[in-house]
Design a protein that fits this description.
The chain is of the alpha+beta class. It has 31 helices and 19 strands. It folds into 6 domains: about 70 residues; about 40 residues; about 90 residues, no CATH class; about 130 residues, DNA polymerase, domain 1; about 100 residues, OB fold (Dihydrolipoamide Acetyltransferase, E2P); about 70 residues, no CATH class. About 45% of the residues lie in helices and about 15% in strands. The strands form 6 sheets. The chain has a 5-stranded mixed barrel with strand order 10-11-12-14-13. Strands 15, 16, 17, 18 and 19 form a 5-stranded mixed sheet that branches. Strands 7-9-8 form a 3-stranded mixed sheet. Strand 10 and strand 11 form a beta hairpin.
Length: about 700
């Protein structure tokens, strides 16, 4: 009968990885003596003691809470459910049915009734076999290079010090490169400037919340570039920590350190690795005593050994297995090598296999930045996937068009043969109607795959619609008779249809028609950073994936993606702003959004908290003046002089005329500095005036 708020308050007192990665059990929270917890979690005992004390006070004062916790104690640690490991395989010297209990899972797969920890305790070998899409992509790239260039790329024999690869990594040009393509990772690579394979391995291990928050990454970078000295806990550990500049990065380093300092056997060192990797507190406590005792017996100062162990305990919360990082490092290096040396094959394969719309758009943008032209789909030229068509030209694959699919695309390519299709009616007659139906035909027209006919897409779509309700009647109709007189298709309609079936715009962009109005008024999405401090920015783009949600108090808010020519950002519109702008927010509509940028800690994606939504047409009617409101005291407190200097930086003879409104207690004046005194009302200027100078303005 406890209220949710009471149970929630109780649960939030239990550290669940939020304090330096520390997890406390319910038993520890309820009954473990404080002195034991102080010893166990010495490096952040203040936070632990406060939470434990408050937890126990609630239990003492409320019998219902105490009863709930005692019930939960009986449940803690029990198996909650059965599930199948995604990639785990158990290997034994004889049939598993003779050694352990087995069962069939719901899909009929044979599985063990013991979990992986119990299996290892029994001496059985458990291996994880991960299937990575990137390996298939690398094979396809290699095959394509062999086919086009007659060159055999042998990944296992590549030079691991290739200058072109490290130049690409140092520039952060890693879109599409395995494990290195996130925004944060690109920034880290630019700071680190890796120049060896060991750096790639380290960056894959370091780029996680724990090392980033702890300052470990900064220490690694500063030591690599000589900005701080490389230091070792003990001189004897230099051989272990030299490759990472004295920073503990891998579990294997801790294993080796335990052997050198405490005399651990290889088996004991592996037990320590498991305790670290699995975050097993009881085992860590056992290994702690053995580590300190062994090191002291070997002549190392106890105080320094204890400090090192505290570092190892902190490291346990974000430790990484070096062998895993090395394996991934090879795949990262190979994909970077293909991008650096064979970019045509790299992009042709990546664009064909990528199914995530946001990543697909980023790949298209990256290809264009590297000088590639992405050609539209064409039933006479396109293959199933993207393919290379001349120098730095890649043709959109018809199998990538939404609503078509690879099987249908293969049927189209097969029916086309060497002679190609003469037009829409010829296409309909020759392609297997079991593979290509009316919806597929419409998708091809929307994507521009029949533009070679010289007819407008809107006309072709109307002809398809009016040609008959079934595909067979369409094949028999006179598709190319005189079409009904209709208006020419709007460019915006064509772009919308392209986006619908291809995921991006290829013939232009909806922002193009507003270029004159929007010039200088917004920041391209690719230039957005997370400035913090509440600074506002203005961005313009197309509304997509619009969702209107009802809040708990019955009001409505909106979440949508805004797409410009350079990228995409999630926008969040809270109820008060949504109420004022609900009529402006429509799918596929161009809007200008003003708000603050935040970063999602888990995904590293930026999002915009929208404070104002404006239509481009509204901007064109805002007048030709930039009005700045000043108070009398601003004329002698230095703000007027700051304003003058700022305005000088944004002088533009074709911009807006500046008007000053001077207000005092008993007077108001409107000042026009000069009809020729004009400025560019860019987002940067507006941000400086409002955020830095704290001035009120109007346009």
């Amino acid at each position: 009968g406890l209220q949710y708020s009471t149970a929630d308050q109780l649960a939030k007192l239990i550290p669940q990885g939020d304090v330096q990665g520390t997890w406390l059990s319910l038993e520890e929270m309820y009954s473990t003596p404080l002195e034991v917890l102080r010893e166990r979690y010495g490096h952040h005992r203040g936070d632990i003691e406060d939470n434990v004390s408050r937890f126990r006070k609630l239990c003492r004062e409320n019998p219902e809470i105490d009863r709930l916790v005692k019930i939960a104690l009986r449940l803690e640690g029990l198996t909650r459910h059965t599930s199948l490991h995604a990639a785990g395989v158990v290997i034994a010297p004889r049939p598993l049915s003779e050694l352990i209990p087995l069962y069939y899972d719901r899909d009929g797969a044979v599985a063990t009734q013991f979990d992986m920890s119990k299996l290892e305790e029994l001496g059985l070998l458990k291996m994880d076999f991960l299937g990575l899409k990137t390996l298939t992509e690398l094979k396809s790239m290699r095959d394509l290079v062999r086919e086009r260039r007659g060159v055999e790329v042998e990944f296992l024999n590549l030079p691991m010090d290739d200058p072109a690869v490290f130049e690409l990594l140092q520039e952060g040009n890693t879109t599409g490169v395995f494990q290195l393509e996130s925004r944060g990772m690109k920034g880290l690579l630019r700071r680190l400037r890796p120049d060896s394979f060991e750096d790639i391995v380290a960056v894959l291990a370091l780029y996680r919340p724990g090392p980033l928050k702890s300052g470990l990454v900064d220490r690694y970078i500063n030591r690599k570039h000589g900005r701080e000295p490389v230091e070792y806990p003990f001189p004897q550990l230099e051989e272990v920590l030299r490759e990472t500049y004295g920073v503990i990065v891998y579990q294997e380093q801790v294993m080796k350190m335990s052997q050198i300092l405490a005399g651990f056997t290889p088996g004991e060192a592996d037990t320590l690795r498991k305790a670290i990797g699995k975050k097993k507190r009881d085992l860590m406590e056992e290994m702690r005593e053995k580590f300190i005792r062994g090191a002291v017996e070997r002549g190392f100062p106890e105080e320094k050994v204890r400090r090192l162990w505290e570092d190892i305990e902190k490291f346990a919360s974000y430790s990484f297995n070096k062998s895993h990082s090395v394996a991934y490092g090879y795949i990262s290096y190979w994909t970077a090598y293909m991008k650096a040396h064979y970019p045509e094959e790299f992009f042709a394969v990546k664009l064909t296999t990528e199914r995530n719309d946001a990543k697909f758009i980023n790949l298209i943008k990256d290809a264009k930045l590297m000088g590639f032209e992405i050609l539209p789909p064409d039933v006479n030229r396109s293959g199933v996937g993207f393919h290379i068509e001349g120098d730095r030209r890649i043709r959109f694959g018809i199998g990538r068009i939404k609503g078509v699919g690879e099987d249908t695309a293969r049927a189209i390519v097969e029916a086309r043969g060497n002679e190609g299709f003469r037009g829409l009616q010829d296409f309909v007659r020759r392609v297997d109607s079991k593979k290509v139906n009316k919806k597929v035909l419409e998708a091809l027209v929307k994507a521009g795959a029949f533009d070679f006919t010289g007819k407008e897409r809107g006309e072709l779509l109307r002809t398809v619609e009016e040609g008959g309700r079934t595909f067979s009647s369409l094949a028999q109709s006179s598709l190319f008779g005189k079409a009904p007189e209709r208006r020419r298709s709007e460019v915006s309609d064509l772009l919308r249809l392209e986006k619908e079936v291809m995921g991006f715009y290829i013939s232009g962009h909806p922002l193009d028609r507003y270029e004159r109005i929007l010039k200088g008024r917004y920041t391209p999405l690719e230039e957005l950073e997370n400035p913090g401090g509440g600074a506002e920015v203005s961005v313009a783009g197309v509304v997509t994936s619009l969702q209107v949600k009802k809040t708990r108090n019955g009001t409505y808010m909106a979440v949508f993606n805004l797409i410009d020519r350079t990228g995409v950002i999630e926008c969040v519109v809270f109820p008060d702003v949504y109420e004022a702008s609900r009529e402006k927010l429509r799918e596929d509509r161009v809007v200008v959004c003003r708000g603050t940028v935040e970063e999602d800690v888990e995904t590293e994606n930026l999002k915009l908290l929208v404070r104002e939504v404006t239509m481009p047409e509204e901007l064109s009617t805002l007048g030709s003046y930039l009005t700045v409101y000043l108070r009398r005291e601003d004329t002698f407190n230095g703000k007027l002089e700051k304003l003058r200097k700022v305005l000088e930086q944004f002088r533009d003879p074709e911009g807006k005329q500046v008007v000053l409104h001077l207000e005092g207690e008993d007077f108001r004046a409107v000042l026009h500095p000069s009809p020729d005194y004009r400025v560019d009302p860019s987002p940067q200027l507006l941000d400086i005036l409002t955020a830095k100078l704290k001035l009120r303005i109007s346009l």
